[in-house]
Design brief:
The structure is a single chain. By secondary structure, the protein is of the alpha+beta class. Among the domains are: 94 residues, no CATH class; 136 residues, Immunoglobulin-like (Sandwich); 174 residues, no CATH class. The chain is 50% helix and 23% strand. It contains twelve helices and 20 strands. It has a nine-stranded mixed sheet with strand order 5-8-3-2-20-19-14-17-16, covered by helices on one side. A five-stranded antiparallel sheet has the order 10-9-11-18-15. It has a four-stranded mixed sheet with strand order 1-4-7-6, with no helix packed on it. The longest helix has 74 residues.
Length: 584
Amino acid sequence: MKTRRICAAIVSVILAAGLCTGAIYAAENKNTATPQTAVSADVKTGNAAAASEKNETVYIIAGADGSADKIIVSDHLKNTDGSSVITDNTTLSDIENVKGYEEFSRDGDNIVWAANGNDIYYQGTSTENAPVGMKVTYTLDGKEISPSELAGKSGKIKIRVDYANTLTVPTEINGVTENVCVPFAVVTGTVLDNDKFRNIEVSSGKVLDDGDRTVIAALSFPSLQESLDIDKEKLDIPDYLEITADVTDFEFGGFYAAAESGIFADISLDGENTLDDLKNAAAEMNSAMAQLMDGSSRLYNGLTELNSKTGELIDGISALSEGAAQLSSGAAALDEGAAGLSKGIAQLDTGSSQLSAGLAELDKNSAALNEGANQIFASLLAQADSQLAAQGLELPKLTADNYTAVLDGAAKQIEQAMGKDAAAGITAVKAQLDEVKGFCDGLNVYTSGVSSASAGAQNVYNGTVQLSQGADKLKDGASSLKDGTAALSDGIGTLAAGGSKMAEGISALTEGAGALNDGLIKFNDEAVQKLVDAANGDLGGLTERLNAVSDAAESYRSYSGITDETSGSVKFIFRTDEIKNAME
């Protein structure tokens, strides 16, 4: 038991290092850096420049039910101008410089650092609720159960993670003031032991099974459905994660999650008025299509009547002339409708181009997410190196590629030399590293999915370009048809001389006109009307909501406070407690 307690302490230190990277900077730098001077008189009087940028990471250490136990905030003030002093605004307490010896003075929420040209890295604690709340509920065999009661149980398990978004911004939408939530994208991940979990199913997300463990990664957007006011039956935006499985001797390593709003800040449709243009184009297309169908229907009816009267050729010459006139009118309507259709497709081409560009922008954030996860894992490896060395173990430097072989080899040697209990600490360290490595791999799977979606959107755009080219050809062909039918009307006198041949031609033309009319009706029902309904329905009111959501994301710059002159970004990292079986 003593060995297990030592192992647990080592794992706790490694985990704390991963959640509080600023502390690592402090340990690495305070041994070698030259102490800075105390805060000068000028600093205390407030003659200081604001930081150009403030990057904030909020670490939420939560219980197994998702409720926050402790909130640690790590801030990086970028001193782009190399100022001697930097002003900041913060509500944090227990502030500590974690990467240097620069000192500060404080007056309420105003804080001034003697930066001496350096960036400032500091951390502190907060008791304020985060704008994104996490709630984890557990159900065993259909009944809700507390985490403490669940350890060691067997049966049908359901684990559900719900996110609550409480940060709203008053925004005017279509003349009405509404509270729009600051949008957050939340990536949630966990690793399940396949010896204990079987028949694993996930409501939404990505599942990766390597045979021994199952990695789950899911993307959620809390309150985005309500902010955009989109019917779930038309588009269901995920805001929770639900895992079901058959479990034996329940144990659970907990969840990791990362939430950020910055990916929504660049979404804007104001510049091109794409959806408004689409609505106008759809209206023109609908009008042109109605004229085209009316002309086609009249053409077909006229030719049917003409075909039944071929025996009365001489008496029906005037009726033939009228039918030719209708044909010319219908062709003119077709020409007008084809022009409207071409214009509408051109607008669709513009919209698909913007969709492709938007997904490409989202894909840009994938590298940052992966880099952040890899940095956390690298920090864990470094802390593990230090702890193992402190125990007198001389092992190669741990990397993502070698840590499994190195730790397994060390554990085997210690077990052979000192017994299985002596090697338990190294085995536990490796298990913790495996969990975090699994989360990193799951995150890589998610970002790969975003990249694939971006490529797919580009293919859609390429297709609309080809469709636009085809519509232009249709327009040219309709124009030629209009000119041809006008000439046909002028040549009615010539047709009168060839009575029998004309009768055969009219019969064939009647069949063709019927097929044309049927085809136009089908095209109108299956394509044109759906486009018109979409443009005048949900899409018509979506422009302002998308822009409102984007503005809300751009307005949120800091959790703990920031000066007006400073740009900022903030992300939230969640880690829930594990659930261990005390009997093992």
